[in-house]
Every structure is written in structure tokens, then in C-alpha cells.
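User: Run a structure prediction on this.
Assistant: Running it now.
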Amino acid sequence: MKLKALSALLLCLPALVQAGGERNDIPDCYGYAKVKEFRQRGSGRELTVIVDQTIPMPDSIQKAAWGQINRFVVPGDRVRLYSFSAFLPNQFMQLRFAGELNQPLEGKVRDSIGMQSLRSFDKCVAEQQAFFRKKFGQAFVSSLREASEDIPRSEIFHSLRDIGEDLARQPAEERVILLLSDMLENSDFGSFYANNRIRDLQPQGELRRVSDKQLFADLQGARVYVAGAGLVTKDVKQAYRSGKTMELLHSFWKGYFEGSNANLVAFGSPSLNIDLK
């Protein structure tokens, strides 16, 4: 089967459900080639991308994030995409994409498989990356384009807590989270704004309040990368963000992620200038 024909077939296949009921939006090459009994374990890595839809991201941040995702994801990885905003009609936390790329067959196991099945499997795996980029990319772009400054609330804490509960049901050996958000909570918990500007936080006091309200998440030991921190909307008259303001915001979120079983590796304010690792 030619690669173009195989690509068309992959695009037409429906989302699958793996063993244990786990969602998989990437067609499985073991099933396609009828070699399920030779299934190899994945890489153990999972990338979770989270899009905050209460703040439109500049094109430069969107493009940089997409490049980082493409450079990070390799065969055998699992990938998840969530979007969130506030708890409003049609504006709620959603799992937009979940899938796993297959590992290529290597070594002695290849000698146990018929040539026709092996060729089908190898061609399928070769096309999976392109399929992933197309389908995940569509969901990623859609999530970003739906972002709006007109959403008056931002439920970052509750959304991360819910996502953590979801991740706990999907075991992984290594987790990375890419979070695209202004990191400015504006909910019943309180607001990170005051007098039309970003408020200078008192990190330890805010963290005690988070603990008192049981708003820490359990992010399963993830390494967290943030892009977009400190972006302000058109409604904020004072767009200037002092170095002190951003240092306090960074300090708060570093403590928050430590309390949420995660490690804040990089805090792009707003640009994230390092690659995911």
C-alpha cells in the first residue's frame, strides 16, 4: 500500500479505545497490521498540553509552543490536550485529544512476523507522526482560536485539580505539562488583579489560602513548562508589569506546583524560550 493511501486510511479510521478503556485518537498500527500479539510497551512518557481559553495567545507564542510539541513527541509517547476557561455554558474543561504513538518493532520480534504484516506495520508507524501532527494540530489550533478576552472569570486552580484527577487514572513513568496561560486566577477564590493592574502577590499568604480551600492539584510528579504568564487583556488599563510583580507571580506558582506534586521547570513571562525536556 502506498504511503499516501495509508495516510488517507489512517485519517478515516475512528478514534479507538485501548485495553482498560483508555481513549486513543491515533489509530493503532498493531491492530491495523493484525500483529497485536507482538505489541511493544510504549516509551512511558506522556506530554499533557493545557490551553487557558480566557486569554488569546499571541501568534509568536502559539507557533513556538507548536514547535516545542513537535520536537518533543516521538514514537511510543502519549499525548493529551485539555482546554479550560470558566464554568460557563460551552466554556468548561475539555479533553480535546488523547492518543499514543506506537513504538517501531525491533530486534528478534521482527523475525517472528510475516513479511506482509511487517511491511503494513512499518508503513503505518511511518505515517503515524504525520497523522498525529494533523489531528492534534487541528485540535490545538481550535482550542487557541476559541480563546476570548470576554470571559470574565478564570478557574485555573479548579481546572488543574480536575486535570490532575484525570491524569491519575492514566499511569505514566514520565510526565511533562505544557501550560499556555496568563496564570492570573480570577474566580471565587480571589483575583490576581487589583485597580486595573496585576496585583503584587504575597506568595506564602496566597499559598496558605490555596491549602485552606483544598485547591492544590496532584499532577503526578510532572515537569511543568508555562508560556504566556502575565499577559494582560484589553480591559487592563495598566499593561506594564514590573519585574517585582512577575517575580512574585513566579514565586507563587513555583510554590503552587511544589504543593501539587509537580516541578515548575520554566515560567515563560510571557515567552517560553527553552524546549521541553
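The mean pLDDT is 87.
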